[in-house]
Design brief:
Layout lengths: L2 E6 L3 H13 L3 E7 L2 H10 L4 E4 L8 H5 L7 E6 L5 H6 L4 E4 L4 H29 L1
Parallel strand pairs: 1-2, 1-3, 3-4, 4-5
């Protein structure tokens, strides 16, 4: 099953790069790419999204503040030029931090982490259902 992904980044170049890498990955389905963070927020809150590739430094709102407005549970990958945001990314609940430039190897590593987490959660849920039966 493919993971539904959106990209939120104010850089048109980063949106194109991320979109191409996501479209090439057989485990991912690109649902949307948003330069306007509030349009991305709307997509997170209204559509079936599994993963958000999220920039931090944007003019209207920073990525960490935007993440706090997500009403649905999604996996967040912070994608920033500044390595100094890595600790804050994990503190805010991101599943991964990727320092720009984004590459297919970095994306694949994040996807593997997300898939491993999903497998653990599914195993746990199956175990709990078995015990409850």
């Amino acid at each position: 099953m493919k993971l539904n992904v959106i990209v939120i980044d104010d850089s048109a170049l980063q949106l194109v790069l991320a979109s191409k890498l996501i479209q090439k990955n057989p485990n991912l389905n690109l649902v949307g790419a948003y330069a306007d963070p509030f349009l991305g927020l709307n997509a997170v809150n209204t559509e079936h999204i599994d993963v958000v590739l999220l920039d931090v430094e944007m003019p209207e709102i920073d990525g960490f503040s935007l993440q706090k407005l997500f009403k649905k549970s999604v996996q967040v990958i912070i994608n920033s030029t500044r390595a100094t945001f890595e600790l804050q990314a994990y503190t805010n609940g991101a599943i991964d931090f990727i320092q720009k430039p984004l590459t297919s190897a970095k994306m694949e590593s994040s996807v593997a982490r997300i898939k491993a987490l999903k497998d653990v959660l599914e195993t746990k849920n199956n175990y709990v259902q078995t015990i409850a039966s």
